[in-house]
Amino acid sequence: MTFLVLHGQISLEEYPCIDMGFYFEKGKYMEKFYLEDSQDVLKSVDSGVDGLSSKEASDRLEKNGKNKLKEAEKETLFEKFIGSISDPMIIMLLVAAALQAVVNVLSMSEGFKLSEFADVIVILVVVIINTIMSLIQESKAEGAMEALMQMTASTSRVLRDGEVKVVKSEDIVVGDVILFEAGDTVPADCRILESHSLKAEEAALTGESVPVNKIIDVLMLEESKDDITLGDRKNMVYNGSTIVYGRGKAVVVACGMDTEMGRIADALNQAEDELTPLQKKMAELSEFLTKLVGGICVLVFVVGLVEKMFFTADGFSFSLLGSVALDTFIAAIALAVAAIPEGLPAVVTIILSLGVSSMAKRQALIRKLTAVETLGCTNVICSDKTGTLTQNKMTVVDEFTTDKNLLAKAMALCSDAEIKPGEEFSDGEPTECALVNYANKLGLPKYELKEKEPRVGEAPFDSNRKMMSTVHPLDGKYIQYTKGALDVMLDLCTEYLDDNGTVKMTSDLKDQIMKKNKEFADKALRVLCAAYKIYDTKPESNEPEDLENNLIFIGIVGMIDPCRPEVYDAISKCREAGITPVMITGDHKDTAIAIGKDLGIISDESMAIEGHELDKYTDEEMLDIVPKYSVYARVQPEHKTKIVNAWKAKGMVTAMTGDGVNDAPSIKAADIGIGMGITGTDVTKSVADMVLADDNFATIVNAVEEGRKIFDNVCKVIQFQLSTNLCEVIIMFVASLLNFTILTPVHLLWINMVTDSLPGLSLGMEKAEGDVMNRKPRKSSDGIFSNGAGVDMVWQGIYLAIIELAAYFIGFYLETGSLNGFFGSDACVNAMAMAFLTTNFAEIACAINMRSQTKSIFTKEMFDNMNWWLVGSTVITVAITLAAIYVPGLCQVFDIVPGTFQMNELIICVLLALSTFPVFELGKFIRRSHNKAQ
Known about the structure:
Elements: E1 2-5, E2 8-11, E3 29-31, H1 38-44, H2 54-64, H3 77-85, H4 88-107, H5 118-137, H6 144-150, E4 155-160, E5 163-168, E6 177-181, E7 189-201, H7 203-206, E8 212-213, E9 236-237, E10 242-254, H8 260-270, H9 277-310, H10 321-339, H11 344-361, E11 364-366, E12 380-384, H12 385-389, E13 395-401, H13 404-413, H14 430-441, H15 446-452, E14 457-462, E15 467-474, E16 477-484, H16 486-489, E17 493-498, E18 501-504, H17 507-522, E19 526-535, H18 544-547, E20 551-560, H19 567-576, E21 580-584, H20 589-599, E22 608-610, H21 619-625, E23 631-633, H22 637-649, E24 654-658, H23 664-669, E25 672-676, H24 682-687, E26 690-692, H25 698-738, H26 745-755, H27 757-763, H28 789-816, H29 829-849, H30 860-864, H31 868-886, H32 903-914, H33 916-933
Parallel strand pairs: 12-21, 12-24, 17-20, 21-23, 22-23, 24-25, 25-26
Antiparallel strand pairs: 1-2, 1-3, 4-5, 4-6, 6-10, 7-8, 7-9, 7-10, 11-26, 13-20, 14-15, 15-16, 16-19, 17-18, 19-20
Helix pairs in contact: 3-5, 4-5, 4-10, 5-11, 9-10, 9-25, 10-25, 11-25, 13-14, 19-25, 21-22, 25-27, 25-28, 26-27, 27-31, 28-29, 28-32, 29-31, 29-32, 29-33
């Protein structure tokens, strides 16, 4: 007897210590029951055809536990809060606030004043707002296990003490014999003991769209394969699947976490959440800013200490060392805190939140805030086939017949699926639904056909015969319709229906039929044949051998789960955007190849591979395998995860879409998991980062565009705020070095909370640039300062500092008539006012210039896509800044004497600020030229 142990095999002969009767207790071993005779299986689980006794079932339940899946531990609200403030940028802000508070306490001379702690309060408010927004937008509640448990039927019919009893599904144990009929949900993994046309829908578990015919025979393992894939284990039914046709009996061989569903649940528990690309970039930015701030602290402290100890009029004195060091330390901390963009985390969070709202309007629901922009850098989209690329609805797409109406009528009446008046689609087994829907589209609704030709006899479908027959009264006689597999039915047809009536079936006619059958098969269509037979009186026997002979061939239909119409364009747009689409399915290889070719995912069948072939490759070898194949067929859940991980290991940002339970582990493992809102299971949706509300693959393309736009806007905001903060650090450092005051703390607070924040938020509302979907995905290794952004930030910050210092010097000259004596001078009111006004105007101009990091803002595209939010924030910021200069009462807060600021000074400030436009445009031109040369 052979068992599976993780990825290897053991035998009982090698390990006699294994408790054979209850090997399943710890979930470590999984016997290949599908390779064993049903009687041997019953012995293995210590049961019989009449099931267990109530006492034995109770003992096993007590020993092995409930038939339930292990529930993952949930984060408490406190844990979520701690996780939110553990962001490196937030930690840096908190440290800055703490240092500033210490400095404020050390420098207090006249008792406590709340105004002196304004910077600390602002930072803490920003952190609190950011944390609250993150908690609201990112609900981390993992409902995966609960959803998996809900998929289990609430009750099941089992044999206990030789009698049929209804028990809770959670009380089922290994060895129980369960009775199944159409509509039942399978509560555990079972080996089939009896099958009467039993069919199970396993799409959610295997990805196969067509219900599987269940048998009782032992399966044979092919020599070239190590195992039989889940979708081909036709003598097994699995937890979470649904019986859609027939009836049967099966013995439970695995419960709870030992089931195939349990393996998926375990994979979900083991999959760890990873940082998104944006989180990685923000962490890198935080590290950079921390080093920058630390460097500024050391530089300012050393320079200030040296200056005050050696270059003052009193000369060097050890007695002054303590007080000088404290004053210098306070100045260094103040300058370092000024270098930190306090509002940046909140602004980024708001931009991402706005992106969530924007995506929701486009049917993409974001569950994880930081995942909003991840799609923007996606290199690979691994998509499930069934229900994602296709409609998950079997549909007749072709036929071969001389009488289409008769063919449709025969198929509909010889089916058990039903359709209600006024409805477009029928209910029942998917294949039969396709036939009934086919007739309905031709104006032959089944409920009308049944009134005219009610069923009076039948030979039900049987997987051995591969056909079904029904008998109906017709014009005083009786007609029999038979449908089934062509390879079986063709030999039973003695006549052929052509345009002139019936003719004798010949070898030439059979060749024509088989040629058409091959055409259908080449397109991966599932083929069914229909025939009829006329009786003068009602047949006395409904036995198959009495009915199914001397039939008249009507025709064949070809069915498939068709592609979603919108997917064709979506795949094309993905390629234009430099994204590689990959199809992963549990369906058969020929079907997968046909769909892949139809959609343009592959051009040749050599680009397709089956899941079992991946088992022979190590994780390292998979790195060379995944670029060669774009279609994967007959895959199991672990294969999907293996493919996703291989792409990620190659440095590719990978998205995974799907709707079935079998997709959940790979969706969680991907950089961004995408679930389907309508057809998707609760499991898939609960682990996904994004859910498509309309199940439309094309929505992914819209989300990619939105993600790219959001990342562009985040980068613009970061470059804007860091450039302006660098400018402020430079001018404050120069003023400290030359011992004069250029901006007061009130000025800096205004600039950081008003001038930096409002235009920054408005930049986050910028529309996508025209070529956003024609670019290749950015590399995951690219940082915030990649592609010249860091260089731009530095020179832009320096230029802003130059014009703001120039404004101060001009103001000083206009006020005093000379530049002599400004070193170490007391505050010059109008010079400070000009520096303050120029700083505000120049930073607004910087925000306008930042609408595009490479394109001129004077192009038609920029005017056509005008950012009215930025226009509004510019008007508001300019207005309230002018009010701060000119309005009595308010201007005193900024140390400006009412009525002293002249018009010529205002014009100079405006002209200095406007100088940023030609300078920044020149910088963009140089950058574009450099990019073209590369």
